[in-house]
Amino acid sequence: MTGFPRAFAYVGPPDLLARAGRHTLGRAVRTPAELTAWLAESPPDERTAPFTYVVDLTGVLRLAPRRSEHVACAGGADVLAAGEICFADESTGHWAVSEISNLSTGYCPGLDSWSATATALDHAQLPRPDAFTHAFLFRRCPTCGQVNLVKDDDLTCAACDSPLPAEWNLTAPRRPHP
After folding, report:
1. 40 is in which domain, residue-wise?
2. Which residues contact 34 (CB under 8 A, 6 or more apart)?
3. SS3 (DSSP) at 52
4. What is the pTM of this model?
5. Where are the beta strands (DSSP E) in 101-153?
6. Which of 62, 128, 56 has the alpha carbon at shortest distance from 95?
7. d(CA 93, CA 101)
8. Does residue 43 sit in the same domain as residue 74?
9. Residue 177 has pLDDT above 80, yes or no
10. How do residues 15-48 score in pLDDT, each as one tens digit?
């Protein structure tokens, strides 16, 4: 898949990456029928709960149970997008995306990952919202290296109170914590 600003590398705990190996937990969903089959394998009370998703480097949507790590869903590989996704059964008997986010503290994708997410959902012919229904900002502190989930637009590091950059910066090298 081309035209996307970047792939997102895993930035979470190294032990989770080591456990993810190269076995991809995430089930590829390329059609509405594949989604229906995957959801049929889920317990009925969990079908409308949030699931873990990634968009792999080929632009394919991959799904895993919510309590799965994104890095396991992706088999340890870089991704074009990651977050949580919910589906609703439309009156026509088909599933549609009802909620979707970029909430992944392992990949910390930027808001620009929506383009890859939207394209993957469109290729899978899954009705979707026009944007993330829940969007999250992530920044790495240039002083202490802590990854921050930005809340209320407060660009202050939760660990050391240093200012955080205005732009996404998770490609910046980690610094050891003080």
Report:
1. 14-123
2. 27, 28, 124
3. strand
4. 0.90
5. 137-140, 147-150
6. 128
7. 24
8. yes
9. no
10. 888 888 766 788 999 999 999 999 888 888 888 8
